[in-house]
Design goal:
Elements lengths: L2 H9 L6 E4 L9 H12 L4 E5 L22 H10 L1 E2 L5 E7 L2 E8 L7 E2 L5 E5 L5 E5 L2 H11 L19 H14 L10 H7 L12 H7 L2 H7 L5 E7 L2 E8 L3 H13 L4 E6 L2 E6 L3 H14 L8 E5 L3 E7 L20 H9 L9 H11 L14 E7 L5 H13 L5 H13 L2 E2 H8 L3 H13 L3 E4 L6 E4 L1 H7 L2 H26 L1 E2 L1 H8 L3 H13 L4 E3 L6 E3 L2
Parallel strand pairs: 1-2, 9-13
Antiparallel strand pairs: 2-5, 3-6, 4-5, 7-8, 9-10, 11-12, 13-14, 14-15, 16-18, 17-18, 19-21, 20-21
């Protein structure tokens, strides 16, 4: 890291991955506190520990950690941290000089396994209510969850100590069989006995403690759930403005809980019908498949070692589902659509074999596809933190024109991919956008987005304006043809041509002549589009063509 980069980091202030520490003297930050802060960063996202900077970013300097040598030795700092952390934490330390003062910078990697100080302190980086970062203690449930995740231990397959098959309810096994038959699950399981089902799912074996946590959660009696899975709870609320119409606490086994939530939400399902030629399109406010996936994901992927309930809140505009535990290890907000890493593979497999969720692990893609095809916004996971997963599903505000386009296109052409739907919906909503704007709004990879945009342009669903980095994308003629608004596309095209002509004439008035390349750069057009505009002006006598081939340029009459 160079001095300029360090200054820029300090100027942006403390972040979840940047910590400032004062050390005007040896009394401000001792070795123990230094190690504690490094371990804290490692238990979060990793980052930079910068010593010699105040909380407000003022540079006050780092008093020497090794006064006998007259300065701070970075190698000894690295050795100190590695020696006083369990497991040993590798770091990279550097000393920089800013404003004639020494600054100690320690680069801390993100740790897979929880890191403690040699004195047994476990801390992690978190955000306070005011949005500022701090180090907080790891409570036992969080620590246990991280340990299980790192070591690939499936909580659902751990022993429910002291439980027997009598703690499971025959009615829940029968409900599982009914779901298999109705939802198109693994029909082999529907033919098995209760014990055979539990064994097939990996929740019962011949160990001294044969019943596993997953069996209690799926098939347990209410009493056994309270005994072995006390954190399991669902709170379902239906709001009418600020008034609570429904406030239900559910502590049933998972399958019964799914059934009860679905039945209570069924009351509020409505449909809006639109016509597209001979097609009649039903646009539901609460698509059953979407709500099922959202609730199932919350129940399957929540952290059952963490305190807190799964909360399902329906209001006039959104269905919000929140579950404790944060995203499973290896999954981020950027990889939600592509990653399939359940916190409990055994529970996820049980739901798939019951037919409750997508068997290919593409449940979130299914949610995106259904909502976007209905002209709704995509599910919103932006409120997710490292402690909770939150998804907001829109239940109002459907764009019926977009829904009509998707249905018509897919009935006549081919099914649109999820990214194609997202791009078309975004441009339909926002209008003309650049590649950078699109990538930023979708949190996507520019290369993949550009490839998909080019594919849509080939199908005339997207129109490309300009070239290079100035290119913009808007809906193409194919889209307007489908929705019956071709005049709007032609009108917008004419308006763009008029603007380009005005820019070319202004350029000629200022500089006297213009080439095709200069016209393309001035108007943000491709060379071919610029040539079309220049030819139109020339044919109308508004400009004069001079020269030939490479020397061709245009002037005013």
């Amino acid at each position: 890291m160079d001095t300029k980069e360090l200054r820029e980091i300090i100027s942006r202030g403390e972040k979840i991955d940047v910590e400032f520490k004062r050390r005007r003297s040896s009394q401000d930050l001792n070795d123990t506190d230094l190690v504690k802060n490094a371990a804290c960063l490692a238990n979060g996202e990793g980052g930079l520990l910068i010593v010699g900077v105040e909380d407000d970013g003022a540079i006050t300097g780092c008093a020497s950690f090794h006064p006998k040598s007259g300065s701070t030795d970075p190698r000894r700092i690295e050795a100190l941290i590695a020696h006083q952390t369990i497991p040993a934490l590798p770091t990279t330390a550097e000393v920089h000089t800013l404003e004639s003062k020494e600054i100690l910078c320690i680069s801390v990697p993100k740790a897979d396994s929880p890191v403690a100080t040699s004195k047994g302190v476990y801390q992690r980086r978190a955000l306070r209510i005011d949005g500022k970062p701090e180090c907080v203690a790891m409570d036992p449930s969080y620590l246990f969850s991280r340990y299980n995740s790192v070591n690939a231990r499936d909580w659902a397959k751990l022993e429910a100590l002291g439980a027997s098959f009598d703690d499971l309810a025959p009615d829940e096994f029968e409900l599982f069989r009914r779901m298999v038959r109705q939802q198109g699950g693994d029909d082999v399981l529907a033919q098995l006995s209760d014990e055979e089902i539990a064994r097939a799912l990996g929740f019962f074996n011949d160990d001294p403690d044969p019943v596993k946590n997953g069996a209690i959660l799926l098939f347990g009696t209410r009493r056994s759930i309270e005994r072995w899975v006390p954190n399991h709870e669902i709170i379902l609320q239906v709001m009418d403005g600020s008034e609570i119409k429904v406030n239900k606490q559910i502590r049933s086994p998972l399958l019964s809980a799914m059934k009860e939530v679905a039945e209570r939400l069924d009351i509020y399902r409505t449909e809006e019908e639109i016509n597209s030629g001979l097609l009649r399109i039903a646009v539901p406010n609460l698509p059953e498949r979407v709500t099922r996936e959202a609730v199932a994901n919350a129940l399957v992927h929540r952290d059952y070692t963490a305190l807190g309930a799964v909360r399902i809140v329906l209001d006039l505009h959104n269905l919000n589902v929140t579950s404790p535990g944060g995203l499973p290890r290896g999954v981020t907000l950027d990889t939600l659509l592509s990653a399939s890493t359940p916190r409990s593979p055994a529970l996820a497999d049980a739901f798939k074999r019951a037919g409750l969720v997508d068997r290919a692990g593409r449940g979130i893609q299914v949610m995106y596809r259904i909502l976007l095809s209905a002209g709704r916004a995509a599910p919103d996971y932006s409120a997710t933190t490292d402690e909770t997963v939150s998804v907001e599903v829109p239940v109002s505000g459907s764009n019926l024109e977009f829904a009509r386009f998707v249905t018509t296109w897919q009935s006549k052409k081919s099914e649109l991919e999820v990214l194609e739907l997202r791009l078309l919906h975004l441009i339909h909503t926002e209008g003309r956008l650049t590649l950078d704007e699109i990538a930023n709004l979708l949190n996507g990879t520019p290369i993949r987005i550009r490839r998909t945009l080019n594919h849509l342009a080939d199908a005339s669903l997207i129109d490309v304006i300009g070239r290079g980095g100035s290119r913009e994308f808007r809906l193409g003629s194919g889209f307007y043809d489908i929705v019956g608004r071709r005049p709007d596309f032609i009108r917008s095209q004419v308006m763009n041509d008029v603007r380009a002509e005005q820019l070319i004439l202004a350029y000629l008035g200022e500089y006297g002549s213009i080439t095709r390349a200069q016209a393309a750069e001035t108007c943000g057009l491709t060379g071919q589009a610029a040539y079309r505009i220049l030819r139109s002006l020339y044919e109308r006598g508004e400009i004069v063509k001079k020269g030939q081939t490479r020397n061709t340029h245009y002037v005013l009459p």
